[in-house]
Design goal:
Elements (H helix, E strand, L loop, with lengths): L6 H54 L8 H13 L1 H27 L1
Protein name: DUF3847 domain-containing protein
Keywords: Coiled coil
């Protein structure tokens, strides 16, 4: 039969468990902060990419600067519904994927 613990043993065990709990809480906090940092980085990259795309559109067609969001959406829907545009977009996407795959293969071989 197990010997009952005295008060000092219980206090020491409690202190040890509380220390472990504090360490685990700190570890959780660090992980949550890391997650936020990575998510913020992804949002920042997305925002940067979208701003660059918008800037490119405005440089190619300065008239769009005055369009509302709704008007711009209608314009984009019309443009991207054109079969020639769909064909070019598909071609560009396939070309991009092929190039990315070639680069991965070169890295793997090198």
């Amino acid at each position: 039969m197990a010997k009952p613990k005295n008060l000092e043993q219980l206090r020491a065990e409690k202190e040890q468990v509380e220390t472990q709990l504090a360490q685990e809480q700190h570890k959780l906090e660090r992980l949550e902060n890391r997650k936020k940092y990575l998510e913020k980085g992804e949002r920042t990259k997305r925002t940067h990419r979208l701003c660059n795309l918008g800037g490119t559109i405005e440089s190619l067609a300065p008239e769009v600067k005055d369009l509302t969001r709704t008007e711009m959406t209608e314009l984009m829907e019309h443009i991207f519904s054109l079969s020639e545009v769909q064909r070019v977009v598909r071609h560009m996407a396939i070309t991009h994927i092929s190039q990315a795959n070639r680069e991965k293969e070169l890295k793997a071989d090198g």
